[in-house]
User: What shape does this take?
Amino acid sequence: MITFKTKGSFKNTEKYLKNCKELDVLFILKKYGRDGVIALSQATPKDTGQTASSWDYVAEATKKGGSITWTNSNNEFGAPVAILIQYGHGTGDGSYIEGIDYINPAMRPIFEKIANDIFEEVSKI
Assistant: This one.
């Protein structure tokens, strides 16, 4: 069992947490959702350009925070082409096409910017 005692008030803590709750996380998530789509589109290897132009995102704010989901709607025979490019895939004649890690390098700066902006916003409170 863990026990702790305190003297005084949690007034400042409660005020800070209330202000954090009112933070407009969705605005930041939408901004970086769009930036992520641009970064992914530019980084996607282009044959026809269809996969590069098929990126989109969904930004959601929840009671516990928020999330951004990047999607790519280009599918071949039911398989997501963006994932096939990223991780590689077998072909119909039995050969294998090695994957190209293009998603992680494209998204790393976006993730860093999100973390910095969220930290900056929380620090203002």
